[in-house]
Backbone:
């Protein structure tokens, strides 16, 4: 039975070769991943991170006219308060109404943990449906109901019979994996199983009559579809990046629709009406895109992240190749690159030779490191939050560009602090959530991604360099702060190797 | 308990972690899966005016990060390994293992593991904080009990001047630091000493000195009172349950009663009160021009936890001369807790308002509309207008729909930054005035 037919999505630990604990050269990393030794690696010491539920919620909270039922104890989903604030900002920037999804917790008590929470879940879904009339009800199951064995699929199926909303179950038992990337699959699994992904007659179109006029309409529609592409976004990808890539694909004569974040049920019905699905991140969308290929025959492209000149060109060219537009893509890239290179010229001498460390998502750090090296920055090392075979193509290039650099797969702050302490970089480009720590360490930093700013394509190159130069302009804040902050690690920790606690 | 809309509290683990992050020298070790500590810290660190993660909070929190293997085979050994590594790596004076749902459900012997460390003289304790047993407020109580009534040794030596302050809950009382600082200032003003525990001026020595205190004040009608009772049994320190004084009227009364309980001479407390009022009104007097000329008299609805409900309503009525309509209490209370709060509310001298227990944001909005209807096109309609909602940032939308003014004074507070601001005491009274009227003059510029 394929994963798509199962009630529960697989976690990536089952589906892919992956890991979260590694230090060594890129070559060793590739080898360790391929042989499967990566999966076995662990640590003697761990600091908290997130779980797949956290990232699934990030995605779900952006969907328009939806509501969320958290099936679990009251603590699960508490970050939705913040996610709704963030989601409203994203909606506003995309011209949508900033209305937060209502969310409820089934608030499982000790008696429910013993006696089962199914009835409570049913009542909660029925209440949210009756009271708020959402278009989509996401039912997010957490660790506890998974351990006690609540049959959430059966409950959602039963409620669905009486509800006008689409009841979409999202299975997120956090204990199944330390790696949060399974969240993307969990979200997509719910979408692909419970949401209509094809246009509905009389709602989305008027059925065509037979005869010449109908045929002409069909031909016109097929032509438009043959030039329509779906661009798959992610929580780390902001409207600026979506606009930049849409602009470039528009220039190639393609019609672009963006999924899945910030979409509505009405928009999801058009997912199947495209000639090509395009991912913007190797470790984000393969689960959904291969489903769409299987179900609707839509081919897909996963061609890295369009960060920096060569990767943007590569990305653009792979999309164009599908439409026999390589020549146009090359010329477009030439034109855009010339303009952008001219624009960034004044920045280059200010960043060249600066010692930089990168930290965050596996695809971003690898891609960005290659690009910054190309621009003349001294890349000391970088840390990927996790690794899975989706990133293999990029790390093969990384191995070529940085054959002797000791890189790491780590999302652990204590290791990060140790590294910064030893390497003393001039600048750190890092995942959101670490900037405060970096400032306390006295190091200027730039966000690795930030939905308020641009990173992709040509506009992204300029914007990133602008921010790097800006980061160097006044570093007194970091200096003063770091002089007064005490970190929790004992002095002896800084004498040890940063990856001392990794178990082989 | 039934389902809850947009809960304004998380789990017991969250409450414990939030309090630990403000407690100097105390290091948490979360025994559960990878995500709990990080997810909850996100809310704890940002939901209360962005007060941040702290010394060993957020992504620095040690965790056993159990996975399916431990769910099947048990997590004791992983926990033991994590504690050993934490002791080696992290500098702290007390290490507190707090549990999540998973390890409680699989029945790990957490205390058995920590006992082995205690036997070796290591300062490690274990507390049971699963979500299905209680919310953030009870997490605060569990933590207090664990440290003050469990870990700390009894002492014969009492300091007649020392007072411990409890009941003000980190993050879930978003102004806890400013409030504690002002309370400490007032206590010290009477020549006494104060332990606030959760403010940056404190150290672990304050925690250790707690058993020698002569009095515990609990600024909560419901949270921490049972703890204070246990404290009295264990350490012999009596306790006083009262409301947080906000503004001069309430603070005068607080100081007067405190002086009686702590045997401070009447003359001394009168001098303090006179001096404080002189300063307060020195500032407050000048605000009357804009306050009155702009007609800043409002009907008020408050939406807060049980700790702030009475203090805020009392301030709005007695200091601002506003008419308080409804005071919504949003924490999830048992019936006996509700009764306690209701009787305190009845004695607080608030004229018109009703105390209502409701936590669901949309139910609160509905209740306001039902109880205080808006004009639906009638020519003569005595509406409750203008209306000011003192609530959380969840009430922003409610206020917008209603055309009411709003200020976020309760959890969650996402649309403001809170650093050392507090609303307690004399200074807090001025701050609250500044924030309320500040929100009203903001559109003028």
Residues:
């Amino acid at each position: 039975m394929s994963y798509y037919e199962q009630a529960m999505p697989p976690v990536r630990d089952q589906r892919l070769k992956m890991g979260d604990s590694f230090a060594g050269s890129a070559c060793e990393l590739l080898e360790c991943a391929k042989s499967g030794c990566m999966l076995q690696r662990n640590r003697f010491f761990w600091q908290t991170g997130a779980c797949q539920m956290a990232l699934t919620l990030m995605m779900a909270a952006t969907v328009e006219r939806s509501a969320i039922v958290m099936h679990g104890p009251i603590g699960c989903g508490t970050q939705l308060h913040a996610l709704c604030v963030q989601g409203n900002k994203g909606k506003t920037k995309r011209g949508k109404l900033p209305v937060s999804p209502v969310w409820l917790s089934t608030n499982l008590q000790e008696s429910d943990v013993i006696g089962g929470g199914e009835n409570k879940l049913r009542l909660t879904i029925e209440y949210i449906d009756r009271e708020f009339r959402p278009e989509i009800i996401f039912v997010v199951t957490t660790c506890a109901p998974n351990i006690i064995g609540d049959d959430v699929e059966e409950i959602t199926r039963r409620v669905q019979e009486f509800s006008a909303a689409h009841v979409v179950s999202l299975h997120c038992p956090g204990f199944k994996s330390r790696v949060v990337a399974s969240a993307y699959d969990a979200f997509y699994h719910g979408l692909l199983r419970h949401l209509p992904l094809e246009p509905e007659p009389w709602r989305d179109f008027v059925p065509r009559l037979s005869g010449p006029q109908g045929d002409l309409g069909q031909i016109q529609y097929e032509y438009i579809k043959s030039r329509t592409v779906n661009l798959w976004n992610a929580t780390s990808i902001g409207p600026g990046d979506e606009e930049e890539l849409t602009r470039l694909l528009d220039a190639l004569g393609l019609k672009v629709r963006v999924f899945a974040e910030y979409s509505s049920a009405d928009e999801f019905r058009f997912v199947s009406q495209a000639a090509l699905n395009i991912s913007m991140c190797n470790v984000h969308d393969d689960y959904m895109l291969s489903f769409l290929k299987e179900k609707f025959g839509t081919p897909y492209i996963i061609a890295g992240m369009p960060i920096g000149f060569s990767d943007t060109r590569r990305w653009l060219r792979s999309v164009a190749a599908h439409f026999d537009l390589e020549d146009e893509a090359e010329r477009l890239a030439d034109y855009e690159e010339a303009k952008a290179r001219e624009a960034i010229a004044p920045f280059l001498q200010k960043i060249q030779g600066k010692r930089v460390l990168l930290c965050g998502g596996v695809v971003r750090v690898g891609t960005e490191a290659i690009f910054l090296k190309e621009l003349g920055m001294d890349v000391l090392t970088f840390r990927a939050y996790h690794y899975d075979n989706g990133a293999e193509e990029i790390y093969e290039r990384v191995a070529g560009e940085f054959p002797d650099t000791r890189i790491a797969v780590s999302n652990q702050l204590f290791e990060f602090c140790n590294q910064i302490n030893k390497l003393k970089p001039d600048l750190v480009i890092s995942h959101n959530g670490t900037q405060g720590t970096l400032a306390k360490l006295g190091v200027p930093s730039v966000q690795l991604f930030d939905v308020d700013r641009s990173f992709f394509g040509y506009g992204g190159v300029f914007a990133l360099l602008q921010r790097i130069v800006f980061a160097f302009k006044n570093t007194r804040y970091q200096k003063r702060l770091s002089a007064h902050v005490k970190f929790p690690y004992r002095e002896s920790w800084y004498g040890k190797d940063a990856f001392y606690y990794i178990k082989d | 308990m039934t389902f809850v809309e947009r809960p304004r509290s998380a789990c017991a683990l969250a409450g414990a972690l939030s309090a630990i992050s403000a407690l100097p020298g105390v290091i948490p070790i979360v025994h559960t899966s990878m995500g709990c500590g990080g997810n909850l810290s996100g809310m704890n660190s940002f939901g209360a005016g962005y007060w941040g993660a702290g010394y060993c909070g957020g992504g620095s929190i040690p965790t056993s990060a159990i996975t399916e293997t431990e769910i099947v085979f048990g997590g004791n050994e992983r926990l033991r390994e994590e504690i050993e590594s934490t002791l080696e790596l992290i500098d702290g004076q007390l290490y507190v293992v707090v549990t999540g749902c998973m390890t409680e459900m699989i029945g790990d012997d957490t205390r058995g593991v920590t006992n082995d460390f205690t036997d070796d003289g290591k300062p490690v304790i274990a507390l049971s904080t699963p979500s299905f047993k209680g919310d953030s407020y009870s997490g605060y109580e569990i933590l207090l009990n664990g440290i003050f009534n469990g870990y700390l040794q009894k002492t014969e030596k009492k300091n007649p001047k020392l007072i411990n302050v409890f009941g003000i809950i980190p993050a879930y009382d978003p102004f806890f630091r400013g409030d504690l600082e002002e309370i400490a200032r007032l206590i010290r003003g009477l020549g006494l000493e104060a332990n606030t525990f959760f403010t940056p001026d404190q150290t672990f020595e304050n925690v250790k000195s707690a058993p020698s205190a002569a009095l515990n004040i609990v600024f909560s009608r419901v949270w921490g009172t049972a703890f204070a009772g246990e404290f009295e049994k264990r350490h012999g320190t009596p306790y006083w349950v009262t409301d947080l004084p906000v503004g001069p009227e309430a603070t005068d009364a607080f100081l007067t009663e405190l002086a009686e309980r702590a045997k401070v001479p009447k003359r001394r407390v009168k001098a303090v009160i006179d001096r404080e009022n002189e300063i307060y009104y020195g500032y407050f007097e000048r605000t009357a021009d804009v306050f009155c000329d702009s007609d800043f008299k409002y009907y008020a609805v408050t939406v807060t936890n049980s700790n702030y409900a009475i203090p805020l309503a009392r301030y709005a009525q007695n200091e601002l001369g506003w008419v308080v309509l409804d005071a919504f209490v949003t924490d999830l209370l048992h019936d006996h807790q509700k009764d306690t709060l209701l009787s305190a509310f009845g004695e607080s001298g608030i004229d018109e308002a009703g105390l209502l227990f409701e936590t669901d944001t949309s139910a609160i909005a509905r209740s306001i509309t039902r109880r205080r209807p808006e004009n639906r096109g009638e020519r003569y309609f005595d509406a409750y207008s203008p209306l000011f909602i003192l609530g959380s940032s969840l009430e922003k939308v409610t206020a917008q729909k209603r055309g009411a003014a709003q200020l976020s004074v309760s959890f969650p507070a996402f649309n403001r930054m809170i650093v050392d601001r507090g609303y307690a005491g004399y200074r807090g009274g001025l701050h609250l005035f500044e924030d309320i009227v500040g929100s009203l003059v903001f559109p003028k510029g």
